[in-house]
Structures are given as structure tokens and as C-alpha cells.
Write a structure and sequence with these properties.
four-stranded parallel β-sheet, alpha/beta, 9 strands, about 300 residues
Length: about 300
């Protein structure tokens, strides 16, 4: 039995297998329509989510399976003080696989140690978000045709952004990857990722404050929102939330073959006027998220479709 806590839980070969399976699911959806007949996915979401929870549920339904779970801690026995370990022991009696989101770093890891079913980390605090990373990789692969020899711009909240942290962990395993880290001083990438991942693996990167400075050299721009729920006080959030706004004027500085990704939800960091730009790929990214989660469910349940 396997769990997915981090992108590093999958080797590069296994990662490529999941992505290729997702591409086959996109091309031949009918072939997989009953692959999970009789199986149940539990979604245990201790904090709000739209795309991650619904895409996991849509993935299981499209595979012919069933879904169950809760969408907030308040609608579960966590509100009565039940521990994560007791919850997962209980859910293991009902479901075949589980996706968990939790505001505390490491909570899904606690769950997998007490679980008798595969556990998918659907986001834990500011730590990791591996299924979003799989989605991002599939999006880049489909749009650019490769996962190597690219310059990736990461913009916005690089301090608390778990999607950014997970994506860095995954991309550094491919050759020819360069990063441009675009953030204000207060939201810079944490030292433990800069030192232990980028520096340790000799991955080239530079840190800039101005988005305009970075745009001309990028293959992918990965925008993120400033996350209100990660700030300790309202004043700091208000000061940071509109630091970056991508609009048509800034997009004019970018290459014609640069694509814009965003894990969503967005607030103000991408102007609505950018949605009509053919380089805006964040809603395609949402669709790819269903295919990649279908592939992941099949992989963790060890279900093979001829």
C-alpha cells in the first residue's frame, strides 16, 4: 500500500507514468469509465477548498466509483476533539482511498501512519500540495511538450505557498530547469527550500522584486495569491495582497510562447482582462487536474486498465 505525501514519494519514472496515464485518460475517457466500480473515495477536508476537493470527487466519479467525506472541520467530529489518527482509523472502515486537506503541516502524514487505505495529501498548511504539483506538471507537459530546459517564474507568496514548494521539489529533478523567484522581501522563498533544495542541487535561480523585470525571459509564469489565511494579522495581509497584478500591459512584455499558470483561487493578482489571452492557461490547468487525479487514484489502488 502506498500513500502520496510529497511529489518526492514518486520517482521521476513513476511521475512520468502517472502523467502519461493522465494523457491516455484524457484521450480515451470511456476506457476508464468503470475502472473503480465498487470503490469509494473519502475526502477529508479540514479547511475550505473548491478545486482540490471537487476535482478528487469528480475524478472518482468519472472512474465509476463512489465518494463520501466532509468539507470542513466543523462538519466532522474534529469539532468535538477527535484526533486525525482516530478519524482515519474510522474512515478506513468505510472507504478504499482517502484525500485529506488539513491546516496543520504533517497532519496527512499522521493519518497515513494509522491508515489501512492509501492517503493522498491534498494540502497541509504551507508545506506540500502534491496533487496540485502533478496537475502543474501535466499542464506544462501538454502546453510545452517537455518538462526540461525551461525557465520558470514563481510569483507572489513564495513563503507560505505550498503549491510553489511542491512544484520546486518536483521540477528540480528534471534537467535544464532555471527559476526566477519573484516576491517582496516579506514573502521570499523559505531558506530551507532555497538552501536544501535549490543550492544543494545546484539549480540556477535568481530573486527579483519586479515582475516586469522577469517576464521577458520566462517559459512559464506561475502566479500565486497572497494567502490571507496564512497571515497572523490583517495589516500585513492588506499591505501585501495587491503587490503583484498581472494585466495586459505586463503580458505585452512576455514571450508569445510563455504560458500563465495559477493554482487558483485568484483574488486580484491576475486581471480578468488576461483571461482572453491565449497564453492564460489556468482554467486548462483545472481540467488537467481531474485527469491527473484519476491517474493517481488508479495508481495508488493498483488498478490497471488494458
Amino acid at each position: 500500500m502506498r500513500h502520496l505525501m510529497s511529489p518526492l514519494d514518486l520517482s521521476v519514472e513513476e511521475l512520468d507514468d502517472v502523467l502519461h496515464l493522465a494523457q491516455d485518460i484524457e484521450a480515451h475517457p470511456a476506457k476508464y469509465a468503470h475502472a473503480c466500480d465498487g470503490k469509494t473515495l473519502a475526502t477529508l477536508f479540514y479547511e475550505p477548498s473548491t478545486r482540490t476537493r471537487l476535482s478528487h470527487e469528480a475524478a472518482m466519479l468519472k472512474l465509476g466509483g463512489n465518494i463520501m467525506g466532509f468539507s470542513s472541520a466543523n462538519s466532522s467530529s474534529a469539532s468535538k476533539g477527535e484526533s486525525v489518527s482516530d478519524t482515519i482509523r474510522t474512515v478506513s472502515c468505510y472507504a478504499d482511498i482517502c484525500a485529506m486537506r488539513h491546516p496543520k503541516e504533517g497532519a496527512p502524514m499522521v493519518a497515513c501512519r494509522h491508515s489501512s487505505i492509501p492517503v493522498i495529501n491534498a494540502g497541509d498548511g504551507g508545506h506540500q500540495h502534491p496533487t496540485q504539483t502533478l496537475t502543474d506538471l501535466l499542464t506544462i507537459l501538454n502546453l510545452k511538450g517537455r518538462l526540461h530546459n525551461m525557465t520558470i517564474g514563481l510569483c507572489g507568496d513564495l513563503k507560505f505557498g505550498r503549491t510553489v514548494h511542491s512544484l520546486i521539489h518536483a521540477l528540480v529533478r528534471y534537467t535544464g530547469i532555471k527559476f526566477v523567484l519573484i516576491s517582496p522581501e516579506e514573502l521570499k522563498l523559505p531558506d530551507y527550500i532555497r538552501n536544501d533544495v535549490l543550492d544543494k542541487k545546484n539549480v540556477p535561480y535568481k530573486e527579483v522584486v519586479r515582475l516586469e523585470e522577469a517576464l521577458p525571459e520566462l517559459d512559464i509564469l506561475y502566479m500565486t495569491r497572497v494567502q490571507k489565511e496564512r497571515f497572523f494579522n490583517e495589516e500585513d495581509y492588506v499591505r501585501m495582497k495587491d503587490f503583484y497584478i498581472l494585466d495586459k500591459e505586463k503580458m505585452a512584455l512576455a514571450p508569445e510562447d510563455m504560458y500563465v499558470l495559477h493554482p487558483l483561487p485568484r483574488v486580484n493578482e491576475i486581471a480578468v482582462e488576461v483571461d482572453d489571452d491565449p497564453r492564460a492557461a489556468y482554467f486548462k490547468q483545472v481540467q488537467y487536474g481531474v485527469y491527473v487525479r484519476m491517474a493517481l487514484i488508479l495508481t495508488l489502488l493498483d488498478i490497471h486498465v488494458d
